[in-house]
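Lecture 7, part 2: worked example. A protein chain together with S-adenosylmethionine.
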Amino acid sequence: MLGLEIPKRRADQVRKTLLKHSLINNELKIKRLGDYVYIPLASKLGMDVLEEIGLEDIKTVDMEFEIHKKSPRSLKDYLKGHISPQKIDEIKKSFDIIGDVVILEIPRELESEKYQIADAALKFTRRKAIYRKGSEIKGVIRTRSLEHLAGEDQSETIHTEYGSKFLLDVRKVYFSPRLATERERIVKQVKDGEVIIDLFTGVGPFSVSIARHRKVEIYAVDINPDAIYYLKSNIELNKLQGEVHPILDDAEKFLNTRKLEANRIIMNLPGTACKYLDDAISSLKEGGVLHYYEFSSDFETPVSRIKQAAGTRKVSILGERKVKSSSPGRWHMGIDAVIH
Ligand SMILES: C[S@@+](CC[C@H](N)C(=O)[O-])C[C@H]1O[C@@H](n2cnc3c(N)ncnc32)[C@H](O)[C@@H]1O
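Predicted complex, written out as structure tokens:
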């Protein structure tokens, strides 16, 4: 292996110059023998570097160096030499960590490396189960198929978000940790005493987080029996100041039979929430706040839909945000609107 022999007194200065030019082979250990230090080189030195160092008392050598036994610190470290750094970055961006479960996307061309990637993810994240996304989120209950790749095949877990705990099964219910900031933003807007409808509640991340901090009354509705089962557990699992009523029902049916008058309605079903806008707005008190979500490439589409559904009632837009990317050029948009 290629190395540089340097007298001890000059070793530090030469090491700094080599570092500056990324010429040290960091996988090998620097050696000290008698009055000399031997630095493993990543490549041959050019004349410019040799001149900068000063040639008089150093020489290049061919010798054995010990390999560093450093433990890998990143997914890149684990997969180095097997998968290109760009592909690893793509996989990393797709990571969703929900409690002890990791869900990741592995492109088809890496099919034969999938177990190796999953094993690396298991070691890197120190979670218990690794699943691969097997489909897009689909259907009424908004779940996806998952392929178990490493660790335990245990899809039920407890996820903690801003201090709230959520028991859920990633195979049976929708849950996205990427909405944590959005939920926290909504929690901060709520005041004690409000009556709230969380129309597509899932396992209750909006409802439970709000009720942990505020003395409110929340009607948390979902059509998926598993979501309502976990919502009930989550009401038990968290110390709530407010009251959450879990309701297993279709949103439209619920709104039309209960005819509540709410201060705030949350509509996080971005693909089809627009179908329920008329009924939801009818259940909002004068001056009530609507948190409406829609997949869109612009803000105008969801805003004009809200205005149309409000009819003769005045609408003031409080805020509009790209909550997360859903596909190239399209976002999960969030609109906050006051309906007067
Ligand atoms: C995108 S998830 C949102 C869950 C939750 N709000 C969250 O932030 O994690 C939408 C939820 O709406 C529920 N859903 C779909 N259609 C429904 C309907 N017609 N009535 C009530 N719930 C419905 C699904 O079961 C799913 O749990």
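The pocket of S-adenosylmethionine is lined by residues 140-142, 174-175, 179, 200-202, 205-206, 221-224, 227, 250-251, 268-269 (CB under 6 Å). The chain has three domains: 2-62, 75-154, 175-339. Keep this in mind for problem set question 3.
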